[in-house]
Amino acid sequence: MSDQPTSPSAPHAGDPRTRRYVLILLGAALLIAVWGIVSRLSARNALEKQAADAGVVTVTTVKAHGGPGKDTLVLPGSVQAFYEAPIYARTNGYLKVWHTDIGTPVKKGQLLAEIETPEVDQELRQAQADLATADANYGLARTTNERWKGLLATESVSQQDADQRAGDAAAKNAAKQSAAANLARLQELESFKRVLAPFDGVVTQRNTDVGALINAGQSTGNALFRVADLHRLRIYVSVPQLYASAIHQGLNAGLVFAEHPGKRYEGVVANTSRALDANSRTLQVELQIDNSQGELLPGSYAQVYFNLAGVDSLRIPVNTVLFRTDGLRVAILDDQHRVHLQLITQGRDFGTEIEVLSGVTANDVLVANPPDSIADGDQVHLAPPQPAAAKPAATGRS
Q: Where are the domains of the chain?
């Protein structure tokens, strides 16, 4: 019987090599598992840190600064003549002639126009005749009274008759005085036929012409002339309430007019209303300026520059202010970059800046453009300083 070849036997589980392979595989699997767990934890921590960093607001900061030594307040002003008056007729009639047109300089008492008054002329003549009649009646009554007084002394007439003659003389005297008063009234009306200038000035309006019907009295549109005294002008300005206490008599102000570019005029505060307008909360201020050269015109617009003494206070940009229900607040940063919302008291408003009367010091670091959601105690990041813009290199052509 021939010998069969023997096949190699399968490795046994208890073989040392097999155990080594198993341990190697288990170690590799364990390393892979540990690496996966560590990488997941690292990624999660990085994501949490990134999310936390994204939740912290990045802000820019500014500081409060003091106001200038002087404040310049610029306000619109309205220019008016020192004296200006509409001239109305005091009698009825028709315009006979006018002697002055617009722009004519006039003196006080100068004749501006003449009015024809036929009705008043007739009434004047009638009044003169009535006075003459009353004077004649009184003369006769007075003579009769004197005669009866002589007769009464000799008891030739009764006391009653003498008293009647005395009463008649007194009544005739009263009628004479009434006629004289009426005549004086009509003479005054007759004098109103001559329209005179009330003061030295310039005729700025002429609203009538020859033949126009003239009615006595003042009503809209019935002024014959308008005369203005231009040797000195008044400028009226409405000063806001915040600056009212700084305006006083004698304060100098600069005036600039569009029709005189580059030229500055000096005026002085003559009066103030000493009361604020209840609707606009402004103080009406009157300035006066010499206009003896006639360069300036009433009715024009002027820009008035008041140089006011500066107030020792701080100013902050308006973009640092938060409007909250309890008032105005600003976000102040501490050394750890945490936010503290501070209540402030506002003073004057300068447009891009406001005056702060309390709540902020010069050393406080304020957040510029704070978001509305910012809250007290929030942590913030400071934005890196912006690099200075590089000036473009000059290029030339050959």
A: 71-117+193-310, 119-190, 313-382
Rounded Cα distance, 146 and 152, in Å:
10
Angle between helices 118-153 and 159-191 (to 10 degrees): 160
Digit-coded pLDDT (tens) for 23-80:
788 888 888 888 878 877 777 776 666 655 555 678 888 888 887 667 788 899 999 9
The fold of the 313-382 domain, in CATH, is 2.40.420
Range 384-394 average pLDDT: 56
The CATH architecture one would assign to domain 71-117+193-310 is: Beta Barrel (2.40)
H or E element, residue 105:
strand 105-106
Alpha-carbon separation of residue 13 from 20, 22, 95, 209 (angstroms): 11, 10, 144, 139
Q: Is the sign of the CA dihedral 289, 292, 295, 297 positive or negative? A: positive
pLDDT tens for 131-180 read: 999 999 988 888 888 887 788 787 777 888 778 888 888 998 999 999 99
DSSP 259-314: TSTT-EEEEEEEEEEEEE-TTT-EEEEEEEEE-TT--S-TT-EEEEEEEEE--S-E
85 with 218: CB under 8 angstroms? no
CA distance 183 to 176: 11
Instruction: List the one residue out of 100, 83, 85 whose CA is nearest residue 194.
Output: 100
Between CA 345 and CA 335 the distance in angstroms is 24
Cα→Cα distances 395→235, 355, 392, 398, Å: 54, 46, 9, 10
- Taking the C-alpha atoms of residue 266 and residue 255, their distance in angstroms, rounded to an integer, is 6
Token pair of 128 as six digits = 């003169």
Q: In what order do the strands lie in the sheet with 65-66?
A: 65-66, 314-317, 353-358, 345-349
For 243, phi then psi, to 5°, come to: -105, 0
Domains 71-117+193-310 and 313-382 belong to one CATH topology: no
Q: What is the CATH number of domain 119-190?
A: 1.10.287.470
